[in-house]
């Protein structure tokens, strides 16, 4: 099935730095599935997952550089897409 | 009107655009290792940078990771965090980690610096240079973190010396020596793709989750700190394969051979990790069998379906790993139990609850093949006759593990393979290891095999105490069963636990 | 197949040729179905040592711990040497018996299948 071939994920540490990022992902990616593991949150989706700078900034009340996600990243799967406004993974088989 | 550069432009200006075409030296003189492996690269500009980290961002975020890590390590040390582990038996997993894995991080640091110098493409150079510094950071965080345990437990004191000499540590050492003495394309396929992409979860998850489940906050912390770099490493691995595969069809069979070789070497190396998961964690995370099913059979299966578009297939002998998952960890624990007198960490027999967990997790193998010998050993140990194997084992020439693996299809018979090369015979544990030798005999005939070196008199002397001395192993302290170890005695004192019946000192081997 | 190397006609130095063992040969023995001994064993002995030394001293020391050892009757034991059936001459030397550097001896004791017949 095409969906299974296009699974992507982001796995983040389950800490205060990552919390607004995880919330932003939930907001901007309604098709995403959030799974909790010990000390880690894994977010799966078909096709694409996007972290939007603006959404995170709304949540934390300061400027946020999408590359800050590096501090909280545990693992990912998919082709990385990044620019000044967002960081994400996608797959299109 | 000037404007700020966007991320893509910044990255381009500060990496690719700083490269140049040489005008008065030939490329093949500047990059002399590009041809000999047979890999053909037509256009390095087709390399797609997995991430766009410029140096300023790199240092900013890495420094932040370091600050966070070391404040946690300080708190851990100040609060005697080592007292929160489930049981001092757990600490033996860390001994195996510091002596076996941390030196590989250092080797990776050197290896990526080497290949970063050898690749002509600016994108590849940048990624390798960053990874080289990442790996140096990893080994340093591990040393700093585990040094706290060194104050309270035995076996940590000379990890660097031991890595180069001790019999079981030649398994991880030879793995990386093989990669580092290979060409740059093989190195990066072996480490970035096969190890850091295909098999990474089978190293990271067992140790770090094992740490989390067993109260080891320090290891969890350095684990997460390292893991945040691993996402970059994983994507480098994938990019490398895609790039080589897309550059020239002639590359495909070469890449496939490397995938076959490094999958098998990685699988054999991970035996130590599987054993750790099944036997060395007082609180278990999951079984090796389960981990292999999730992280290789499912995830790996999906990955190689993806790779099929390039003409790459599943690694050779992958089917044997499906059968092997029921056996290798029990066989490995048996090897270390046999030779604990010569190891810088302790072993023990599982208790009844642990044996029942093993029965439940390994319904097709544990009770039939392994429980009988373990129960016998346990009885003997309780009677003051703990088993220590008095004879050196036969080693596989390629993976260097004692030949404790059984023939596929028959878990009661050791698997034997052999090859002759230039007047000498070589022995292997499996088809996978034999194939690796047969493809590069000039390389593997040079292996420094611990048992053979002992018999050649190159390891400090003819007796076991001589050799252990040469290892810098403290006799009666670092080795032998956990039951009589100073580690256990100290733990019981610190925890105010009463000593038990079976604490009478055993016969030394 | 040859290793790919940056110097042409690369040759490696084999570390384990018989000349490095100070007059000994290194060979291997496996007691089939007794995996309590986790792996086959490695021995270094002079090639002119009598085979009987193996039977009377070396192997009892190596394997005596096992409860099945008392079942060993050398007259009934089945041997292979490098995967061929082998009928050892105890009074002859290792060398005279055809045991050379890196040889593999495997033996089976009829009726002995290890702890609880599990192959241990």
Radius of gyration of chain B: 24 Å
Distance between the termini of chain B: 81 Å
Q: Using the alpha-carbon principal axes, give the shape of chain B.
A: globular
**Overall pLDDT confidence of chain A:** 91
- Proportion in β-strands of chain B: under 5%
Low-confidence stretches of chain A: none
What is the CATH first-level class name of the domain at 8-330 in chain B? Mainly Alpha
The rounded distance between the terminal residues' Cα atoms of chain A is: 11 Å
Number of strands of chain A: 7
Give the largest interface.
B-C, 61 and 47 residues
Order of helices and strands of chain B: HHHHHHHHHHHHHHHHHHEEEEHHHHH
Classify the beta-strand content of chain A into a percent band: 35-45%
Indicate the mean pLDDT of chain B: 94
Residue ranges of chain B: pLDDT <50 for 5 or more in a row? Answer: 501-509
Compact description:
Chain A contains 3 helices and 7 strands.
Written overview of the protein:
The complex is a heterotrimer of chains A (93), B (509) and C (120). The model of chain A has no long low-confidence stretch (mean pLDDT 91). With 93 residues, chain A is of the alpha+beta class. The longest helix of chain A has 10 residues. Helices cover 24% and strands 41% of the residues of chain A. In chain A, strand 2 and strand 3 form a beta hairpin. In chain B, a hairpin with a 2-residue loop joins strand 1 and strand 2. With 509 residues, chain B is mostly helical. Chain C is globular. Classes of the chains: A alpha+beta (93), B mainly alpha (509), C alpha+beta (120). Chains in contact: A-B, B-C. The interface between B and C is large, with 61 and 47 residues.
């Amino acid at each position: 099935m095409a969906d299974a071939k296009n699974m992507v994920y982001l796995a983040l540490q389950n800490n205060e730095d990552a919390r607004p990022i995880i919330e932003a992902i939930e907001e901007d990616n309604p098709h995403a599935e959030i799974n909790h593991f010990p000390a880690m949150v894994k977010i799966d989706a078909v096709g694409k997952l996007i972290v939007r700078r603006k959404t995170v900034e709304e949540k934390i009340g300061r400027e946020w550089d999408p590359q800050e996600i590096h501090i909280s990243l545990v693992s990912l799967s998919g082709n990385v897409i990044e620019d000044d406004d967002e960081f994400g993974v996608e797959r299109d088989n | 009107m000037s404007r700020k550069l966007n991320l893509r432009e910044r990255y381009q200006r500060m990496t690719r655009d700083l490269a140049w075409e040489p005008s008065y030296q030939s490329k093949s003189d500047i990059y002399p290792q590009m041809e000999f492996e047979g890999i053909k690269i037509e256009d390095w500009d087709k390399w797609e940078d997995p991430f766009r980290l410029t140096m300023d961002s790199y240092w900013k975020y890495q420094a932040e990771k370091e600050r966070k890590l070391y404040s946690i390590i300080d708190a851990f040390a100040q609060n005697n965090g080592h007292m929160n582990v489930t049981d001092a038996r757990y600490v033996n997993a860390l001994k195996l980690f510091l002596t076996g894995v941390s030196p590989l991080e250092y080797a990776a640091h050197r290896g990526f610096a080497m290949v970063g110098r050898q690749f002509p493409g600016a994108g590849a150079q940048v990624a390798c240079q960053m990874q080289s510094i990442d790996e140096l950071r990893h080994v340093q965080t591990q040393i700093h973190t585990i040094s706290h345990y060194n104050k309270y437990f035995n076996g940590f004191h000379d990890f660097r010396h031991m890595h180069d000499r001790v019999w079981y540590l030649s398994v991880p050492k030879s793995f990386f020596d093989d990669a580092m003495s290979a060409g740059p394309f093989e190195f990066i396929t072996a480490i970035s793709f096969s190890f850091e992409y295909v098999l990474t979860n089978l190293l990271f998850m067992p140790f770090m989750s094992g740490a989390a489940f067993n109260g080891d906050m320090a290891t969890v912390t350095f684990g997460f700190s390292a893991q945040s770099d691993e996402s970059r490493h994983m994507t480098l691995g994938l990019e490398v394969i895609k790039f080589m595969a897309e550059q020239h069809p002639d590359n495909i069979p070469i890449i496939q051979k490397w995938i076959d070789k490094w999958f098998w070497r990685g699988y054999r190396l991970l035996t130590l990790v599987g054993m750790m998961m099944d036997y060395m964690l007082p609180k278990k995370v999951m079984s090796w069998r389960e981990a292999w099913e999730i992280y290789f059979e499912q995830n790996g299966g999906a990955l190689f379906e993806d790779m099929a578009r390039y003409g790459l297939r599943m690694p050779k002998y992958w089917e044997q790993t499906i059968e092997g998952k029921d056996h290798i960890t029990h066989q490995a624990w048996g090897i270390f139990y046999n030779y604990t007198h010569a190891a810088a960490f302790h072993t023990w027999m599982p208790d009844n609850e642990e044996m029942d967990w093993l029965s439940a997790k390994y319904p097709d193998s544990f009770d039939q093949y392994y429980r009988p010998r373990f129960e016998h050993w346990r009885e003997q140990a309780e009677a003051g006759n703990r088993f220590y194997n008095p004879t050196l084992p036969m080693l596989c020439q390629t993976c260097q593990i004692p030949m404790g693996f059984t023939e596929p299809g028959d878990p009661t018979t050791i698997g034997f393979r052999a090859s002759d090369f230039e007047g000498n015979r070589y022995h292997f544990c499996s088809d996978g290891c034999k194939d690796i030798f047969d493809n590069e005999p000039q390389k593997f005939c040079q292996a420094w095999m611990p048992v053979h070196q002992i018999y050649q008199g190159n390891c400090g002397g003819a007796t076991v105490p001589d050799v252990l001395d040469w290892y810098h192993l403290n006799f009666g302290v670092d080795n032998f069963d956990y039951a009589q170890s100073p580690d256990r005695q100290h733990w019981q004192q610190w925890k105010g636990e009463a000593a038990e019946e079976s604490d009478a000192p055993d016969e030394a081997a | 197949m040859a290793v790919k190397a940056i110097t042409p006609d690369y040759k490696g130095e084999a570390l384990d040729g018989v000349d490095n063992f100070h007059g000994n040969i290194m060979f291997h023995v496996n007691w089939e179905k007794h995996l309590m001994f986790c792996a086959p064993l490695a021995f270094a002995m002079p090639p002119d040592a009598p085979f009987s030394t193996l039977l009377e001293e070396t192997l009892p020391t190596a394997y005596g711990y096992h409860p099945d050892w008392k079942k060993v009757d050398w007259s009934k034991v089945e041997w292979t040497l490098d995967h061929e059936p082998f009928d050892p001459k105890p009074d002859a030397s290792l060398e005279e018996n055809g045991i050379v550097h890196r040889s593999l001896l495997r033996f089976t004791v009829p009726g002995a299948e290890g702890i609880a017949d599990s192959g241990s």
